[in-house]
Amino acid sequence: MSICPKNRSSKARRNSRRANWKMASVNLVKCSKCGELMMPHRVCKKCGSYNKKEIITVE
Questions:
Q1: Domain range spanning residue 59?
Q2: Were 47 and a residue from 5, 8, 34, 39 both cysteine, which residue would form a disulfide, CB within 3.0 to 4.6 Å?
């Protein structure tokens, strides 16, 4: 036995329900040390710092 819907959903109702399934853009912030755009709460790929402290050395 398969599932049988009680009432048919119109295309507009179906599409409006799916309208919130969109991808969010990546949130970027400026690095406090070098000013490069980076993802928040992560080590900067350009200067290797996090929270104004040197975490990794970048050549």
A1: 25-59
A2: 34
pLDDT in tens, 41-57: 999 999 999 988 898 88
Count of domains observed in the chain: 1
Q: For residue 14, is it within any domain?
A: no
Asked whether residue 17 is domain-assigned, the answer is no
pTM above 0.70, yes or no: no
How do residues 16-31 score in pLDDT, each as one tens digit?
999 888 888 889 999 9
- What are φ and ψ of residue 14, in 5° steps? -65, -45
Question: The tokens of 5 are what?
Answer: 């819907």
Q: Has residue 10 been placed in a domain?
A: no
Extract the tokens encoding 34.
Answer: 């070098």
**54: CB partners within 8 A, 6+ apart:** 48
